[in-house]
Write a structure and sequence with these properties.
There is one protein chain. The chain has helices at about 10-25, 40-55, 105-115, and strands at about 5, 30-35, 60-65, 80, 90-100, 120-125, 140, 150, 165. The protein is of the alpha/beta class. It has one domain: 3-Layer(aba) Sandwich (Rossmann fold). Strands 4-3-2-5-6-7 form a 6-stranded mixed beta sheet, sandwiched between helices. Helix 3 links the parallel strand 5 (about 90-100) and strand 6. The radius of gyration is 15 Å and the shape is globular. The structure holds 1-O-pyrophosphono-5-O-phosphono-alpha-D-ribofuranose and hypoxanthine. The site of hypoxanthine has 7 residues, from loops. The site of 1-O-pyrophosphono-5-O-phosphono-alpha-D-ribofuranose (PRP) has 18 residues, from strand 5 and helix 3. This is Hypoxanthine phosphoribosyltransferase.
Length: about 170
């Protein structure tokens, strides 16, 4: 499989450190970080550790959402697993690898507000130039409109573990 490398490991680390520095003053130790599984794992792990380096130990939970399956188009949204703990009365920070159509982020935000979160902030590593109903509060990288892989992003379940972000097409 061939791909172009678009964002290096060092660039990812620098951008996440900048995001953590920017968002830290708005968060507290009571904030709950919510990782959107599966693709968000790598970004959520790095962002929460970057926040800890900036002196902030936020909570951590996950929601398992799936809408692409093994394809390259957004499809039916499936909530495979919900949060472990209640978020009622909490500030929440959603963390995900990519913002594309926005369907996943919107579903997660609406779900968390219905669950009683008082504020839902959103952070994504990459954002594609797509017209959509939702934008993220924090964006690590403005990506091109290409099919991305690596750093959590998969092609049919493969290539998530690449330490950089690449594009297949
Ligand atoms: O903005 P959208 O068009 O909704 O696309 C973004 C979502 O797509 C991917 O999830 P996917 O459904 O492929 O599941 P995954 O996390 O297992 O890769 C990715 O991890 C985001 O959550
Ligand atoms: O470009 C992408 N790559 C992998 N998964 C995705 N989910 C939405 N967009 C993408």
């Amino acid at each position: 499989m061939t791909y172009d490398i678009l964002l290096s490991e060092a660039d990812i680390a620098a951008r996440i450190d900048a995001m953590a520095r920017e968002m830290a003053p708005r968060l507290t130790e009571d904030t709950v970080g919510v990782c959107l599984l599966t693709g968000g794992i790598w970004f959520a792990a790095d962002l929460t550790r970057a926040l800890a380096r900036h002196g902030l130990g936020i909570g951590f939970d996950s929601m398992w959402l799936s809408s692409y399956g093994d394809g390259r188009q957004s499809g039916e949204m499936i909530l495979r697993a919900d949060l472990q703990r209640p978020v009622k009365g909490k500030q929440v920070l959603i963390m995900d690898d990519v913002l594309d159509t926005g369907a996943s982020l919107k579903f997660a935000r609406d779900h968390l507000l219905r669950a009683g979160a008082t504020e839902v902030l959103t952070a994504v590593m990459a954002s594609k130039p797509v017209t959509r109903q939702i934008e993220a509060d924090y964006v690590g990288w403005e990506a091109p409109k290409r099919y991305l892989v690596g750093y959590g992003l998969d092609d049919g379940g493969r290539l998530r573990g690449l330490p950089f972000i690449g594009a297949l097409d």
